[in-house]
């Protein structure tokens, strides 16, 4: 948890590795007990680096990078990691230790999808996968930028709940429908606090949009399968509605509650700006492959706003945002929907638009992509 | 500087917003507020039987029957009505207000003599500021030297009474009055929070003196009715249009849509549904004649005012070859019809309804003074006062059924409940 702990070099390397492999990395993700029997949340541990691989079919593959410079016994650490992988429903873990593990222990651990490395071994492993671990190529693996994001949240507690959802809870959330609803709720809570001229506010909004897109790509992939060949908008709307509210019965129960309390008419219960949401889904269905690339692009642009332009990272950012012209298009469409649904100041949209335009101008690639 | 006339208008607005909500801290303000509402609606009326007045006041003006006697006596004290009574029973009242009298001034003068309490003064001062533009709550409190307790109590009363609305924008508390602004309130609050409204009052003044000016003309020469408009002011007008704070009516022409600028429409408290319809017709009437005056295809209208007055007084406008281009919107709004006199020549004929005549009068007032006139008058209430008692009784009893099903929720509570639903499993 401490921002400047001794495992930082390894964490940075793991972040960088993820970026090079097209994996979406999150650093120091807290694992908190979901069901609580006390007033305060029970914190179990931190995931040093959590990498999310977004598959073409809308599934998310979660990889833990556990960085330990202490002299723990490798097999003990492997067993601990097995537990945390199971507890948090992760898919695998790369455990980077100070001491080398015995080959037998490595084989035993790998049977549980736990891969044991010592620091040198992991560096070598990264080199074999074709990148230089000592270089930082992105705002996302720049620990100074990530630290300043956390400093901002610590100094502005009004934003902590939305930041936690976007950056800490959302990567581990398995229920994408719930994540979509919760992120909307969190953004609604803070929309009156956000100021587009403040870079840190632009960063936070970008993180929320990234998390929204992360779960939206799962939702859209599922909806594509559910709707099949139908081009009936009414059917899409009905399926989407039930999916988002956890099924027909749950939807009806929430609708009934809402009607009783708010005295709504029969058809009024829906996500905020519902018709725009359905329109957005219609736009995202044929763009689902690009939607998958939005979270990393959004987070990168957000950190770029926060830390200012760093020349070394621009090449990667440019490729990320402008390499597929649909990425920025989808990003802005999602942003527009969220603005309509939550009412954050509209100048955020022009600010992000300008960031993207500026990226194209600096690098002269906008027209060629 | 708040003069007596403005004080009279403000108490009218506060009373209209509060309706029947009881505010224990308000004393004189409620009585003069009710007096202003009643007086404004009985201008030039003959005798009104007290029983009818009681029903109409209760139903349309939210003046409870137990308060009416005091209100009528107040109006008698300022010589706006005469009371006919037998013993302590009031039989009828006789309004003593000519069309040239300003009831708000009379009520304001009376209020100045009697004197408001501290909380009433705070409400009036705040609303006085909010007539012109939204304000930052903390800064306004500081500027006016209001202590935090009366300030927050006034905002809470204002929100309940729908004459103040508080917004959280860019981390600041912004207050504005939905009485004076109807549309794009979120955007207006955001502009205020971003300090984007420094030219707002100047812009409003310039727009008021050029009601119905074509947007394209402003963009082409940066002038409104001959008055220079700075680049910042022009950008602000564009921003207000983009954000729907100003909703310019448009007119389709073969060369594209033309849009015409007006000051922002007032909110529900000043402009009810019936008057809004008339207001929209008036804006379209002004736009149509402005098009002929400023952007004619061939023949220029010299005096838009004279043209509209002629339409009102004769019911026609002379045939022309441009009428179908200029007055198409008026036809779709059922204000007028176009009659082809000879091929290619159309004559505009006014559809003679009370609303259309009032729309022309409102349009004339807009052209002459920039102000639409007495838009705060509830025309349904005036009709009720003109009708016999059985009509009023039928309206009141029908409304009682509706009232029972009305259910108003605190917007903040609604927001919290919706968020809880969104987040629950």
Radius of gyration of chain A: 21 Å
Low-confidence stretches of chain B: none
Strand residue content of chain A: 5-15%
The N- to C-terminal Cα distance of chain A equals: 41 Å
Major sheet attributes of chain B = 3 strands, antiparallel
Adjacency order of strands in the biggest sheet of chain A = 1-2-3-4-5
Binned strand content of chain B: 5-15%
Number of helices of chain B: 20
* N-to-C SSE string of chain A, H for helix and E for strand: HEEEHEHEHHHHHHHHHHHHH
Structural class of chain B: alpha+beta
What is the arithmetic mean of pLDDT of chain A? 89
- Categorize the overall geometry of chain B: globular
Distance between the termini of chain B: 55 Å
The count of strands of chain A amounts to 5
Radius of gyration of chain B: 24 Å
What does this protein structure show overall?
The complex is a heterodimer of chains A (369) and B (425). With 369 residues, chain A is an alpha/beta fold. Chain A has helices at 8-20, 74-87, 103-110, 119-128, 143-155, 160-169, 176-190, 199-227, 233-244, 248-262, 274-284, 288-291, 294-307, 311-322, 325-342, 347-363, and strands at residues 24-32, 43-54, 60-67, 92-97, 114-118. Chain A folds into 2 domains: 8-135, 3-Layer(aba) Sandwich (Trna Endonuclease, Chain: A, domain 1), CATH 3.40.1350.10; 141-368, no CATH class. In chain A, a hairpin with a 5-residue loop joins β2 (43-54) and β3 (60-67). The longest helix of chain A is centred in the middle third of the chain and has 29 residues, at 199-227. Chain A is globular. Among the domains of chain B are: 135-193, no CATH class; 200-369, no CATH class. Chain B has helices spanning 4-18, 28-41, 50-60, 65-77, 103-114, 118-130, 137-144, 148-160, 185-193, 200-208, 215-221, 231-242, 273-294, 304-314, 323-326, 328-332, 354-369, 379-386, 389-404, 411-423; strands at 48-49, 81-86, 89-95, 135-136, 165-169, 172-176, 213-214, 223-224, 227-228, 250-253, 256-261, 316-320, 336-342, 345-350. In chain B, a hairpin with a 2-residue loop joins β5 and β6 (172-176). The mean pLDDT of chain B is 90. Chain A binds chain B through residues 158, 178, 181-182, 184-185, 188-189, 192-197, 246, 250, 254, 257-258, 261-263, 271-272, 343, 345-347, and chain B through 167-171, 186-187, 190, 193-194, 243, 407, 409, 414-415, 417-419, 421-425.
């Amino acid at each position: 948890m401490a921002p400047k702990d001794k495992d930082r070099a390894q964490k940075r390397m793991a972040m960088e590795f993820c970026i090079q492999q097209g994996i979406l990395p999150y650093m120091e993700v807290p694992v908190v007990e979901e069901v609580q029997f006390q007033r305060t949340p029970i914190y179990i541990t931190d995931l040093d680096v959590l990498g999310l691989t977004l598959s073409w079919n809308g599934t998310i593959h979660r990889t833990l990078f556990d960085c330990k410079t202490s002299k723990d016994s490798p097999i003990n650490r492997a067993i601990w990691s097995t537990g945390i992988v199971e507890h948090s429903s992760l898919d695998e873990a790369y455990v980077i230790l100070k001491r080398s593990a015995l080959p037998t222990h490595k084989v035993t651990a790998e049977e549980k999808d736990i891969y044991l490395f010592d620091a040198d071994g992991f560096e070598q492993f990264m080199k074999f996968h074709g990148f230089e671990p000592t270089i930082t190529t992105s705002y996302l693996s720049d620990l100074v930028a990530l630290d300043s994001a956390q400093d901002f949240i610590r100094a502005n507690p009004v934003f902590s709940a939305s930041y936690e959802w976007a950056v800490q809870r959302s990567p581990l959330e398995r229920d994408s429908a719930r994540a979509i609803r919760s992120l909307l709720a969190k953004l609604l809570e803070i929309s009156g606090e956000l100021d587009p001229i403040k870079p840190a506010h632009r960063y936070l909004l970008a993180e929320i949009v990234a998390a929204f897109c992360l779960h939206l790509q799962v939702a859209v992939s599922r909806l594509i399968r559910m709707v099949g060949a139908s081009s009936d908008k009414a059917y899409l709307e009905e399926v989407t509605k039930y999916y988002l509210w956890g099924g027909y019965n749950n939807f009806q129960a929430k609708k009934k509650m809402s009607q009783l309390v708010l005295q709504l008419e029969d058809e009024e219960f829906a996500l905020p700006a519902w018709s725009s949401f359905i329109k957005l889904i219609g736009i995202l269905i044929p763009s689902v492959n690009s939607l998958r690339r939005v979270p990393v692009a959004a987070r990168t642009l957000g950190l770029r706003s926060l830390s200012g332009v760093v020349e070394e990272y621009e090449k990667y950012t440019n490729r990320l945002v402008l390499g597929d012209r649909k990425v920025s298009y989808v990003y802005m469409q999602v942003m527009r929907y969220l603005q309509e649904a939550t009412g954050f100041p509209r100048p955020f949209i022009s600010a992000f638009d300008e960031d993207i335009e500026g990226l194209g101008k600096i690098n002269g690639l906008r027209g060629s992509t | 500087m708040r003069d007596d006339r403005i004080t009279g208008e403000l108490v009218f607005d506060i009373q209209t917003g509060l309706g029947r909500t009881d505010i224990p801290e308000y004393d004189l303000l409620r009585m003069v507020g009710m007096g202003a509402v009643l007086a404004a609606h009985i201008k030039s009326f003959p005798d009104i039987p007290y029983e009818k007045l009681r029903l109409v006041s209760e139903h349309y003006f939210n003046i409870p029957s137990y308060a009416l006697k005091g209100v009528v006596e107040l109006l008698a004290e300022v010589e706006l009505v005469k009371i006919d009574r037998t013993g302590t029973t009031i039989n009828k009242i006789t309004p003593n207000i000519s069309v040239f009298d300003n009831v708000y001034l009379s009520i304001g003068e009376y209020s100045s003599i009697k004197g408001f309490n501290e909380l009433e003064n705070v409400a009036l001062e705040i609303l006085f500021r909010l007539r012109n533009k939204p304000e930052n709550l903390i800064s306004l409190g500081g500027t006016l030297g209001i202590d935090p307790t009366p300030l927050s109590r006034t905002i809470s009363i204002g929100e309940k009474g729908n004459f103040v609305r508080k917004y959280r924008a860019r981390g600041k508390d912004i207050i504005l009055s939905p009485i004076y602004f109807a549309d794009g309130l979120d955007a207006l609050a955001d502009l205020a929070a971003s300090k984007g409204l420094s030219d707002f009052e100047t812009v409003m003044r310039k727009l008021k003196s050029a009601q119905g000016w074509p947007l394209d003309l402003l963009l082409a020469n940066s002038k409104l009715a001959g008055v220079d408009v700075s680049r910042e002011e022009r950008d602000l007008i564009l921003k207000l249009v983009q954000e729907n704070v100003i909703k310019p009516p448009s007119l389709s022409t073969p060369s594209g849509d033309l849009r015409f600028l007006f000051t922002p429409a007032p909110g529900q408290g000043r402009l009810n549904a019936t008057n809004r319809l008339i207001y929209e017709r008036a804006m379209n009437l002004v736009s149509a004649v402005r098009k002929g005056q400023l952007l004619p295809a061939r023949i220029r209208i010299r005096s838009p005012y004279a043209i509209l007055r002629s339409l009102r007084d004769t019911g026609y406008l002379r045939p022309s070859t441009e009428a179908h281009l200029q007055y198409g919107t008026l036809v779709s709004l059922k204000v007028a019809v176009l009659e082809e006199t000879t091929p290619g020549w159309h004559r505009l004929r006014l559809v003679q309804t009370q609303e259309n005549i009032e729309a022309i009068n409102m349009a004339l007032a807009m052209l002459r003074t920039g102000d639409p006139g007495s838009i705060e008058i509830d025309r349904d209430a005036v009709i009720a006062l003109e009708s016999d008692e059985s009509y009023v009784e039928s309206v009141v009893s029908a409304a009682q059924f509706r009232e029972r099903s009305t259910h108003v929720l605190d917007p903040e509570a609604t927001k919290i409940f919706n968020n809880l639903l969104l987040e629950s499993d």
